[in-house]
Specification:
homoheptamer, 279 residues, alpha+beta, Helix Hairpins, SH3 type barrels, Alpha-Beta Plaits, 3 domains, 5-stranded antiparallel beta sheet, 3-stranded antiparallel beta sheet, 6 helices, 9 strands, mechanosensitive monoatomic ion channel activity (chains A, B, C, D, E, F, G), cell membrane (chains A, B, C, D, E, F, G), Small conductance mechanosensitive channel (chains A, B, C, D, E, F, G), transmembrane helix (chains A, B, C, D, E, F, G), MS_channel_C (chains A, B, C, D, E, F, G)
């Protein structure tokens, strides 16, 4: 009887105490969750909106980033809620987490590249370092951007190759589609030609282009003697053109200069060598 | 007698309490497992299906990825269930896990490459960066893809070598089988030749190819004076061809240009040198 | 007397309780071990057999891998059993493991290379990336494989050197003994020669080889004008040969082409230079 | 009744004790927070102000740095307060944090680049290594600084490209806009020319520039025979110019020297070769 | 008196219990040690002996390795015994170890190179990758091995330099003293010479060497036309020689070939150039 | 009443015990602090003074280093005192620190570069590897040191660029301002000239410089035939000069040698080529 | 009264027990320390002495190493004693150490280079890899060793530069001052010269040096035809000289060979070219 009694009316007051304490803890936890969830989402939305206003990012992209961040936030919150609930009921989560830690370590080391990709991708988008259809050099690849993703950026090379570049490989971005580009032509004249005369011919051509070719935003102009080569005096012509027009402009200028030099009798010299005959 | 009594009717109420508490914990645990198992599988299936619809991955590949992910999920769930069961019966798993941790550290460092392989391989498949029979450059290897695995990608070089590339080595993929390819021919003419005349001859050839050769998707066309070389004026011809036809097309164009230049008397010059005799 | 009594009949019921509880734990542990041991071995055997069937690995190698994995599994099981036994008797293993952890960290960092070796070696064997007597390029070494071990692969260079390559250094394997190999000969003709005529001569040679030389599996054939060099027009001939026959075939073709060109009066030109005499 | 009594009047004194203890702890915590918050802010402000006075940083930048640091400080304080509050109510935060630790590890590895960016960026600003509109070489990029951010520095190359350089890539900064720059011209004369005579001509030109060209801050002067080349004796002229004027100055000097040498009959030699005719 | 009594006859039964429990633990520990110590040594000895039988390592080296491993094993055992003894007496070793852990981390990072050295050195010895007096290339150093240590390998370069190579730097070993070596001579003949005739002369020389020179283990033989150079047709001769005799053999063959070609009137051509005179 | 009584006179003796124990702990802690603080400072001062005496560092620099180290020491002491005080009052600092640990990990990884900078900078100063106004090569930068800081070293290149080098990038310092420098002139003479005669002329010049030029600390002297070039016999002249005078000295010697050779009729040859005319 | 009584005569027996237990622990600890301290020092001294006897290190250096190691050992012992003392009095050192751990991590990462320096420096000294006044190549620096420190090695380059090399940068040491050095002269003769005759002339010179020049320890001797160059037949002469005499010896041999070849009418040929005139 004593046994039964002991068994049946076991420490009810302790149980009650436990229930009350735990109940209070759970309520506190839920309140915390109810405050944290909308608060966090609001903060994310506001930060994104503020950032977008300042940086003038397109609405579509803002929504994408916002959704992504809120999703991550929700998952973390749920994970923490479950862990703490288990903790209140004293179901041992610590070993569970330690066990996960061993796995996590191996995975963490292996997957850090993935996190790097996403972090870099996030900033590529936020700081608008690259946009679709821009001509960039990034991660050793060179071409037109076809897609900027969180993990991978697709760049189409000029030879038609489609390059998939993990964002972590992009240590620095050279964006060739932001502003006017330089057109530069170096042309050698012979040692016997008069430098002033050659520069006058070049300047005439430059002036023609200035007047007639509206691809030029600035210049072109003759800079002077860039170097004294082993067989020629190198003159430099420089200008600023519309974006992506630099190559066509340089090709046109090269053709024009060759023809003008031919007309003016100025020689573009072949490599020279002085031969000393030994006797 | 007192001894025996003490021994036999030891703290039964405490034991009962323990049994009830633990029983409740186990039931809670099993319920958790029963919810988590199908839920997780469903989420995996749905995510994969959604991703596959969006990315249009073949059914076979979807099944492979789904099976792989569900397998991993199941193993993790079973591992956690066992760990927590042990925890409820207070069999010390913490030291066990700590011990495993020491091993795990050594293994984790050594095996991180393996995890990297699988993570990268997963995205190679999911993002369809490479497909079998495509011509790619990846991890310093160049050739036709024979197999894309979770750990290793097999690439057949054009010289017949079969390359086994661990996926982690693939930092960026250049896929040469996605779209039209560029055919580019640079050809030098002598300083004495008339540039306009040579460009006209080249354009005639380009027009012929445009009409008769349907391997060309765009062009070819003459771009202009690409550079003023030390012994020649370099002209550039550019077009877009069917994928993998670029080399044959370039070979045909080179032959045609050489023959047309011979016919038109335009010289493709040898290297020049001016000899000054010292006396 | 009170003292003695206290000392002698100390908390027997607690001791009894302890014995019963621990006894139960030990029994549970042994049962767990008795289930885990054969189960694990079975799983390993089955996995290996399944893998071997699929990949057609030789019986000897399967046995080696199986034995290795079962050994590792046994050691881990024994280690865990001892740790948990100590845990039940409350002999403090945690500090022991922590102590080992400090050592383990230093060793783990230093020995991770060893683990990398074994992991890579395991997959070299399992995925049959290299076999003995194959000609491979791996880890910067080039030659015939003499032995593939779990830690080191031995490669015999063609100059007679025996290279010991730690498996971790093998980031990618180029296996030159899997399938037909390419035979490729580039040959230059002079600017004055007729391209069609030269290609006809080359194709005649190719046809001869096709008929008479069964080392060729495909081709050889003339591809066309590969490049316009500074002093010659380069033509390319390409075929597929038996494995390892590619070098002998190329040597034979080079000899044959030289002789045929001599007979047909087609010049293989020396480097050219145009001399302009300055006066 | 005994049951009820037990349940209702459970350990009130313990609860009271708990409340008092915890209340005291919370009060202590809040006091700590109230001291730490303004104190920390004050220390940050003062440090920044002191640093700014010493380094003469613009007011705008000081405010930016101050706000950034106070923000970080506030977030850390709030995070710690919450964690300790939870700890006082014995809501298990340790597992929570351990769980976060597993995540944190993965993120920490992936995001360390971000922290590196900010740390380096902070010192770029504080130590004023680069300013907007300066010409620098940093992280392999070369050009005019357009913006120095905490994460990214924007450098405009001279060819018009806009480079986004993550600050962590900037291992050393070469700032070309801090002080006078060197103008250096190397000019070769023939073996037959008199060295003293040539150096006299060069010094005359140098003296002209010294008098007439106020872009020169020091020199230019003739240094002497820099090297005995295979075909010429190389003389060196050196001076210090205004910042960014060095290239124009060098171009002007090259032109002037060429003209003066022509006038004085001093030869700038072509490469020489002695020809031995074999008989 | 009550006080004194309390103080003096404090919980004797508890103390007794403690003593008995701890005594049992210590006995268990000592038994464990007494089993582990000889068992471990036996396992080490047997493993080493087994390994040595299989690999045929010299007796001296086996003893060295055995002694080293048993030493390490003993130190670890003693360390663990002390730690666990402290644990039984509840002297707090955990903080001690944690403290050591902080130190250990710093040291571990710094000293991992040392561990790497020993691990690599151990396998260099065990796998007999290098032996004293062999000619090897390892870690970028090239020469005769003078000593293989656990930490450092000493290599004497052919120029007399003594190189100390930390074993960790040895990522792969090229051992040039294991088997016959290749003797290879490439020789160019002029375009005008008859290939068959030249190959016949070379084969005659090869046959002479085969008969008279017992340094050759295989060959030498003429392989054929290795390449068509810009000025010559390159023929290749190949053979297998005694180890380290390859250089002397090649020198002798070169001299013999030059003399035979002179006798047979076959030209080894100088670089050729075609001169086109521009008029 | 029972309730109240229970509540009011709760475990006073326990509280008293707690107060006494904690009081003792706090006193012990304060005593520890009071001993550690001045002791540590004294040790730092003495160490610095001792080091400075031995290394002869300037007083200003000693003060800087001393202040820096004492500051760091004080902050660490205060941090530890607060942590331990919290620990005595059982305010849970462990989770706090664990939380900080997660942050700390991320920051630790990111900021380790900063610590590296300071550690390296400390030794740069202490070991006096570089001083202001010395000419050094460090971290790939070359020039005059303008400032050595704890984080950054400023080096002024000879072209006027100011380089900011983070100290961690300085893996080795080449200090060119510590002792006499070498002046070395290599000069080629023709194959036809008499070597002894040319060496006599050179030695005469060397003797002139020895007598008249006190920039030379040792030599110069003729060493002999440094190499047999493809067109000349190269002779070497070597001497030791005052620091930073080496370039001017070399320039003067080159000029003198050229003039003396011209006077003595010794030829400094152009590149030679033997022309074989094919008929 | 009950209250007071309770407060005053609180658990004295417990306190007594505590004092006795702790006293015992402290005594045990001190005994441990008293055994460990001299024992450790003895072991260090003996090991060092043993090592020094075996390696014949100078007495001064042994003392330095011994003092360094005993110092480190003492600090570690004191640190551990304090930590354990705190642990006995239950002053919470664990959080303290954890706190230090966060700092320690950051510092550990940053300072690991320092530990690497000392570890490498220790072995540089112990294994006598470099001695003062030896000519070595280490860490990319080349010159005479001026000082070997635990952290830094000072190497004086031949151009007078003083290099400070952190020991960690020294991955392998090439010591050029350990034994005889090789003197090697390669000399080309023309295709027309008789090889046997030229080798006879060279051997005569070698024999002269053998007899008259005691800087030679072995040889010199003529090896044979080292290579068939594009314009010459290269012969090799090889010998072993006194340490550091190799350069002077080579210079003397070059001069002697040139003079002997001139006397014997053997040509050292200039580069050759065959000119084919196109008509």
């Amino acid at each position: 009887m004593n046994l039964l009694e002991n068994g049946l009316n076991f420490n009810w007051s302790g149980a009650l105490e436990l229930i009350i304490t735990n109940g209070l803890k759970i309520i506190l936890l839920i309140i915390g969750l109810m405050i944290a969830a909308p608060l966090g989402k609001k903060i994310i939305s506001k930060t994104i909106t503020a950032a977008s206003n300042k940086e003038k990012i397109s609405q579509g992209r803002i929504r994408t980033l916002e959704k992504l961040l809120i999703n991550i936030y929700s998952y973390v919150l749920i994970f923490l809620f479950i862990v703490m609930l288990f903790g209140i009921f004293e179901i041992p989560v610590a070993p569970l987490l330690a066990g996960a830690g061993v796995l996590g370590l191996a995975i963490g080391f292996g997957a850090q590249g993935l996190v790097s990709d996403v972090v870099t991708g996030f900033f590529l988008l936020l700081e608008k370092q690259v946009e679709v259809d821009e001509y960039v050099t990034a991660g050793g690849y060179d071409g037109i951007v076809e897609e900027v993703g969180l993990r991978t950026t697709k760049i189409r090379s000029f030879d038609g190759t489609l390059n998939f570049v993990p964002n972590r490989e992009i240590s620095g971005v050279s964006n060739h589609s932001r502003g006017t580009m330089r057109a530069l032509v170096d042309i050698g004249i012979s040692y016997e030609d008069n430098i002033d005369e050659a520069m006058a011919v070049l300047q005439t051509i430059c002036d023609e282009f200035k007047e007639n070719d509206d691809r030029f935003k600035e210049g072109p102009d003759v800079l002077g003697v860039q170097s004294i080569g082993s067989s020629d005096i190198v003159l430099r012509v420089l200008g600023q053109t519309e974006n992506m027009a630099q190559w066509a402009v340089e090709r046109d200028m090269r053709k024009r200069i060759k023809e003008a030099f031919d007309a003016a009798g100025i020689e573009i010299p072949y490599p020279h060598q002085v031969n000393v005959d030994k006797t």
